[in-house]
Amino acid sequence: MNRDLQQSGSEQGANRAAAYASADVALGGSNDEPALGAHLITQRRGYEHHGIYAGNGKVIHYAGFAKSAHRGPVEEVSLEQFADGHVVAVRPHPFPKFSGEQTVLRARTRLGENHYRLLTNNCEHFCAWCLLGESRSEQVHECLTHPRAGVHALLCLVSAFVGNRMKIGHAVVNAV
């Protein structure tokens, strides 16, 4: 019976993740500004990167390993830097616990925090905490409940990590 409950929990998680992905709204042209406190996502190779729109073309996100071989802190960057050449979409939250302004204020309280942990404190956990008051990640849940998806995500992260290290090494060589 517990196995049936676990399966239905996994199915619920898969359904939640699919519902989120299908509800994401891609940002259009340069005049398409998200609402204050909007949950932004970009599809990266094998995973999604998450941030909170802070207004005036700025995004607060957990940098993690997005740009470096070393984990990065919660930081405020331009929308262009956050996108890093990828399409940006808004993930709707029909019933956020906090208003857009409160969400941004919560995000700002963590600026400079450098306690990134892939499984327990990543960019998606950060956004969920800012909007909903609870730290959670559908991506992590999916990877832990669907091993094939987890292995695929891990391989993509390793590939991105190696790619970032090569970019950094190439930039250092060119600078010298």
Automatic annotation (TrEMBL):
According to its record, what are the GO cellular component terms?
cytoplasm
Q: Which InterPro entries does the annotation name?
A: H-rev107_PLA/AT, LRAT_dom
Named from the GO MF annotations, one term is: phospholipase A1 activity
| Pfam families per record | LRAT (PF04970)
Q: Which domain of life is it from?
A: Bacteria
Keywords, A to Z, come to: Hydrolase, Lipid metabolism, Transferase
* Span of domain LRAT: 39-139
UniProt keyword Transferase present: yes
Is Cell cycle there in the keyword field? no
Per its UniProt record, what Gene3D superfamilies does this chain match?
endopeptidase domain like (from Nostoc punctiforme)
An individual GO BP term? N-acylphosphatidylethanolamine metabolic process
Matching entries from PANTHER family are given as:
HRAS-LIKE SUPPRESSOR - RELATED, LRAT DOMAIN-CONTAINING PROTEIN
Q: What is this protein called?
A: Cell wall-associated hydrolase
Q: Which organism is it from?
A: Paraburkholderia piptadeniae
